[in-house]
Amino acid sequence: MGNPLHLKSLNHISLLCKSLEESIDFYEDVLGFVPIRRPGSFNFDGAWLFGFGIGIHLLQSENPEKMQKKGKINPKDNHISFQCESMAAVEKKLKDMGIQHVRALVEEGGIQVEQLFFHDPDGFMIEICDCDNLPVIPFGRRNRTIVLLPEP
């Protein structure tokens, strides 16, 4: 138990892009990330952005035409989640920007958590939530519960 690898924090996520410029614009204009200096010794195109205590490392795909774009927004797909101050303000901004999104609501013990899901230009999913409403309650290693739902 504990921290066997002596981890300190999440440093960055790395995302492959069809268009580096389009992705930089999205992460700056929609999510508020700031471009930061990237080491010049890399021999491939990319950009580093920083915000909210984490980095986003964008990597230009060598074969952008072969990258598949996801169409449907599926909240159960891989994603990164950000907490926000006002879900209403986020949803209004997404609508104003013409960004397609899906709403979800999680309820646990009388507590409600709102979620908004949308894609970046390459189909990577982003969640915005008020997840801080839901307390983090750790289990002991042997006391975790996995809930499996029956197949439909």
From TrEMBL:
Domain VOC: 9-131
InterPro entries: Glyas_Bleomycin-R_OHBP_Dase, Glyas_Fos-R_dOase_dom, VOC_core
Record Pfam families: Glyoxalase
Name listed for the protein in its UniProt record: VOC domain-containing protein
